[in-house]
Specification:
By secondary structure, the chain is an all-alpha fold. It has one domain (7-187): Vanadium-containing Chloroperoxidase, domain 2. Helices cover 67% and strands 2% of the residues. The chain is globular and about 55 Å long.
Length: 190
């Protein structure tokens, strides 16, 4: 299947897009050059823990184990939102935009993931899942959402910090994820 949008093509008629991609690259380079104490060992592990939604399924199980009806509903809504976001990103998003992963030259080796992703970079599935789960939980319970949201934000940041994604991949993925949570709410009101 050929891509609908190829972000690797530059030239006339793409001036605005090229400027935005250049800004995206500069932000990526700035994050790669930045050193946050404690982040080097933590963010790559956090990023790996979110592979295949495992972090979020574990969080949902912990919420359900509290035996609180509201926490259980939040867990179910979070998982349903994640499922919709993941299905959308992996079937439509990754297949309709061609964008290679960032080059890892600027990312310190200690931060890089042991196994680099092989799919296209745009949009970030990890960020979509994180935002979908956190938004879904928050739509059911604001206090629980406030607990989950910083972890979701850290997962999204980890995708840039480890060199797996450009910032725009993460932002668009997170927007898709939040949108999936609102779509689930539209189907099954809180």
């Amino acid at each position: 299947m050929t891509a609908d949008l190829d972000l690797t093509v530059t030239g006339p008629g793409h001036a605005l897009r090229d400027r935005l991609l250049a800004l995206d690259f500069r932000i990526f380079e700035a994050v790669a050059a930045r050193h946050w104490p404690g982040a080097d060992p933590l963010l790559p592990k956090l990023s790996r823990s979110a592979n295949h939604g495992l972090l979020w399924f574990g969080t949902a199980a912990a919420l359900a184990a509290t035996r609180s009806p509201r926490a259980r509903r939040a867990a179910v809504r979070g998982v349903a939102s994640l499922a919709l976001a993941s299905a959308t990103i992996n079937t439509l998003g990754k297949r309709s935009v061609r964008r290679p992963r960032p080059l890892l030259d600027a990312v310190p080796r200690v931060r890089q993931l042991k196994r680099q992703p092989i799919t296209t970079s745009f949009p970030s599935g990890h960020s979509a899942s994180a935002a979908a789960f956190a938004t879904g939980v928050a739509l059911e319970s604001r206090p629980l959402g406030a607990v989950v949201a910083p972890v979701a934000a850290a997962v999204a940041l980890s995708r840039i910090y480890t060199g797996a994604h450009f910032p725009s991949d993460v932002l668009v993925g997170a927007a898709f994820g939040a949108g999936a949570a609102f779509a689930v709410r539209g189907l099954v009101p809180t």
